[in-house]
């Protein structure tokens, strides 16, 4: 009998096996194996009560049951799209879920091929020739784009120029990522939700190393002047980084065609359930940055029998070889999420993905129209095309948010008078009910 | 033990075709059916176009060509691959676990309480006063910890420029310190495989911001002089950073906080058995002592009042800001909570005991030079042949090989970590694989592996002519 009651439930040792192994090692007890000086030995308790598997499931279910069951109309970078059932079942196969980084490629061909396919899908969507296996999320991907810029930038530029409406959380992450470089972060003004081209043109000079723009923006508007933004960046010898979203890529202008040198963004919105902010950062760039790309890359090669095979490649960029000269410190990434995202995209196919993206535009338009018809609500506030989300003006946004919550809906109040509302296919059936509830609370 | 890994091929291709090679379609994107004017859309999109059964077969075939911990032993030193119990997946799949990060605090009290409990548990396990759960990986935890140290020094008016790292440390330590803007000073190891106190004394000074240390170190050795090491670093005004990669060996027996470490990261995907899905996601919570608490990234979780009614997110007074767009890898943290609750004090302590027993037992059963000792949960064997070749041949025996050629202090290193989940019979099989391989003739070793989904892969060509997408493959094939 193993130590199910008195030890680790996952250690298989029987008492007699333990005794035999101790004898083979030449000690009398496990304690003798611990070479820890007396003055730092811990003899206390953590006070963590051991529970049965059933008890842990029941207890966590009970705790999580305290979360209110709300229909979420929330976005701001984290989006809910339906994940096909087969994706959960197949991605949960233990050979995927319980494997490690593919340091021995011959025995890890399955995951390597899946990641190669994920990279290829990003190449297709962005039009850029190089995509990595994943970053943690959109914010850290942008941080990595900035540090890449610090390694490849033209001699003088030291400014990363970001939209003034950039989500404060994203800006915060970028500030931390560039804190070890010469770069600093400044913002440029926006005009009705999109980049203010006139102001930006005045601001651009040789001091700018990286110009960052988003589409859709944090307020859900679709940026209409991407090519001009790209031209402005390149005219100042700066890199142009475009932040976007895996679904939007299927519909909106191809990043390569508007001059993007780097594309970052969120890809976990296809593949993950709502996960309290857990994500998948996408990262793609031009060929000339290949040896400066952060994170992992899978390449195709041949095996000894001349069959096609896949392997992690260009590892001399990575931290385990180049240490402090590595392109980034990333080691563990979001590989399994990348697998799920690739599965979801394959599940949609090209027609399905474009249709999903079109629905993100029409859904936002319909819901905005529905809310706008209510006395006391103006939506959308910005006179733009929107993707999934938009801003609605009300008299007292925090109060409306709170009262909607008591009626079972979660929306975001961005300030005293503005709500942010996001819709996808997962809450499509609830749009009318949201409008009804809104009518009651404004 | 012999092993044959599944391999899928199509008659004409001799490999499982890529999604795009099976079928792909180009669709027009702009035009009358588009929800947007044409100048805002792309022209066309080409993607794989397969039915659900075709996809489930494709990915099931890929899974069969992949090795995971449920296939067999995975003694990858320093990476700690151990059993990932299924019930934690059920916990993470609870519908009420699925919430948006912008939800109001009142509506996600369950989520906040679980985060709070995990913060508390990790604090007690590490002997740390406060914990942040935000960093999404171990290296992200290192970066966070070093940013906290930097903020602490700057707040004290000290402009320190150097971080000291033993040359045997994880590569991420060097990279994280450099990313934070520090000059990295490499500390050579002593003759017994541990930190050389004289070398350390010579290395520290007014410029020292921190020493990053793994204990037990990457040779599996406990740094017995840890109290002296802490004194040397602290006397110079530096902070001591603990890399949690090897915390498995210490659970319930020693705590970084008690040893004098000021800041540490935990690898929940190592110590607390959350699955590592082919390289991630993981999570790298960071623990700090009282004097560093105010610098932790936002948001943290606390009780709303002293009566313990409710939980809320808050921003510490001198927070370094954020290292992740939201609150980190929540689903991974939830699995870690479930694992810790399942084991409790006795289980965590026993996991360490058995991990250490297994490492020492396996080290005693293999016919390799295993320098230094005694070992905590891992050891580094020295191969007489090329360690990378040995590793390839071990694949044919149905085991994942150890980490190879690192740390460099040991020639032809095979860094081995069996973990607590292996029974004696499996350890004996592992030892047999180790021992059989060295006895085989060179031709056999150099042509290994024979029985895996792919034979030896030409990695030099992969790096020399990078083909990183199926689009690049087409271009290459056309040449």
How would you characterize this protein structure?
The complex is a heterodimer of chains A (about 450) and B (about 475). By secondary structure, chain A is of the alpha/beta class. Chain A has two domains: about 70-80 and about 350-440, Aspartate Aminotransferase, domain 1; about 85-345, Aspartate Aminotransferase, domain 2 (3-Layer(aba) Sandwich), CATH 3.40.640.10. Helix content of chain A is about 35%, strand content about 15%. Chain A has 13 helices and 16 strands. Chain A has helices spanning about 15-25, 55-65, 85-90, 95, 110-125, 140-150, 170-180, 195-205, 225-235, 320, 335-370, 395-405, 430-440; strands at about 70, 130, 160-165, 185-190, 190, 195, 210-215, 240-245, 260-265, 280-285, 300, 310, 390-395, 410, 410-415, 420. A seven-stranded mixed beta sheet of chain A has the order 2-10-9-8-7-3-4, sandwiched between helices. Chain A has a three-stranded antiparallel beta sheet with strand order 13-16-15, covered by helices on one side. In chain A, helix 9 links the parallel strand 7 (about 210-215) and strand 8 (about 240-245). In chain A, helix 5 (about 110-125) runs parallel beside helix 11 (about 335-370) and helix 6 runs parallel beside helix 7 (about 170-180). The model of chain A has no long low-confidence stretch (mean pLDDT about 95). By secondary structure, chain B is of the alpha/beta class. Chain B has one domain (about 65-450): 3-Layer(aba) Sandwich (Aspartate Aminotransferase, domain 2). In chain B, about 35% of the residues lie in helices and about 10% in strands. Chain B contains 16 helices and 14 strands. The longest helix of chain B is centred in the last third of the chain and has 36 residues, at about 330-365. Chain B is globular, with a radius of gyration of 25 Å. The mean pLDDT of chain B is about 95. At the A-B interface, helix 1, helix 2, helix 3, helix 4 and helix 5 of A face strand 1, strand 2, helix 2, helix 3 and helix 4 of B. Chain A: Pfam families: GDC-P.
